Amino acid sequence: MSRQETRPIDTDQIKRMLKKKKGKMKLLLSHCVRCSLCAESCFLYMTHGKDPQYMPSYKVINSLGKLYKKGGKVDHNFLESIKGIVWKNCVLCRRCYCPVGIDIPSMITFARTICRSQGVYPRLDESISESWL
Amino acid sequence: MFEFVRGPLIWISFLIFIAGLLYQTFKFFNLSRKKELIFIDLPFNPEKPKSKGFFQRVGDWLVYLKKETVWRTHPLMMVLTWVFHISLFIIPIFLLGHNILLNEAWGISFYSFPEFISDLLTWIPFICGGIFLFRRIFLRRVRAITTGYDYLTLMITLAPFITGYLAYHQMADYQTLIFLHILAGEVMFITIPFTKLGHMLFFFFYRFFIGSEYSFGRGRRTW
């Protein structure tokens, strides 16, 4: 568990942020055909025994996708679970390839922005062995 | 009910389909208004002088397709998806039964395949759809991101072909099967613009208009 001090989650701010980019993000999320062909383009997926949780589509669906599904009504624990996905499981190398042409890195970036806005982000003083997932 | 489904509901479904696609197109171009010059070292770099001929550029593009796309990692899947999507278009358009109806209604028709050819071609979506369903159920990586919605959209896509095949071969009550076939087609038309089936349109928008490392065309739009 992170040692970050918890501060109240401003769900209104999250909702505003989600609404601001709703047009683009919802379009991209809705057009993911769940084919999993993006998997091999992620080196983290290839080097972690092809674990599905490192697939670009998995990362997006379980971070930003869940944020939109919940409409921004999330708590600190939820953002902590997303923190592991968008920071530990992704380095934003922008190598991910989608046959449909969905811009996956932009969605991961946006999810990071939302987490950061609520004070949820990896700290330098966190233990490396600490599991975020 | 049958008269409604084979009459007004066809018009309603076409209207929703066209209006939905126009709305999505407007939404895309509205959201991606900004344009910026992107220098990408691809065969279609717009800043390079046009010294290569058309066929040479097509050849370069085919090499790029093989090296830099999913063709390299999943060639079989790429062939299957190409064949599947092409069959989704050519089977209904060049089907004799559909062209007879078109001719009776508007006096126009397309070329029609011989019926046994259409019958054979209908097995393409069946086989490809079966493989996609197999992947969804048995491949761990696909199962991890699959929900009921994905099974539903696959069924929506295959239902017109299944019911049409059964109706043509009169494997059950013809009136019922043809009713289901028409209804399945209408459901598919209505759902295309508003579900992930919209990738029918957005594949081209994303890959040809949005500028990125993986663009196929000379797209310079950005979000």
Explain the overall architecture.
The complex is a heterodimer of chains A (133) and B (223). Helix content of chain A is 47%, strand content 0%. By secondary structure, chain A is an all-alpha fold. Chain B has helices at 2-6, 8-31, 54-68, 75-93, 96-106, 115-121, 123-138, 140-143, 148-168, 174-191, 199-208. Chain B is built from eleven helices and no strands. Helix content of chain B is 67%, strand content 0%. Chain B has one domain (2-208): Fumarate Reductase Cytochrome B subunit. Chain B is globular. Chain B has 223 residues and is an all-alpha fold. The model of chain B has no long low-confidence stretch (mean pLDDT 88). In chain B, helix 2 (8-31) packs parallel to helix 10 and helix 4 crosses helix 7 (123-138).
Q: Can you tell me the CATH class of chain B?
A: Mainly Alpha
Q: Classify the beta-strand content of chain B into a percent band.
A: under 5%
CATH class of chain A: Mainly Alpha
CATH architecture of chain B: Up-down Bundle
What is the H-and-E element order of chain A? HHHHHHH
Number of strands of chain A: 0
Number of helices of chain A: 7
Structure at a glance:
Chain A is built from seven helices and no strands.
What labels would you give this structure?
heterodimer; A: 133 residues; mainly alpha; Fumarate Reductase Iron-sulfur Protein, Chain B, domain 2; B: mainly alpha; Fumarate Reductase Cytochrome B subunit
Secondary structure elements and their pairing?
The complex is a heterodimer of chains A (133) and B (223).
Chain A: H1 11-20, H2 22-30, H3 43-47, H4 56-61, H5 64-69, H6 76-88, H7 104-117
Helix pairs in contact in A: 6-7
Chain B: H1 2-6, H2 8-31, H3 54-68, H4 75-93, H5 96-106, H6 115-121, H7 123-138, H8 140-143, H9 148-168, H10 174-191, H11 199-208
Helix pairs in contact in B: 2-10, 4-7, 7-9, 9-10
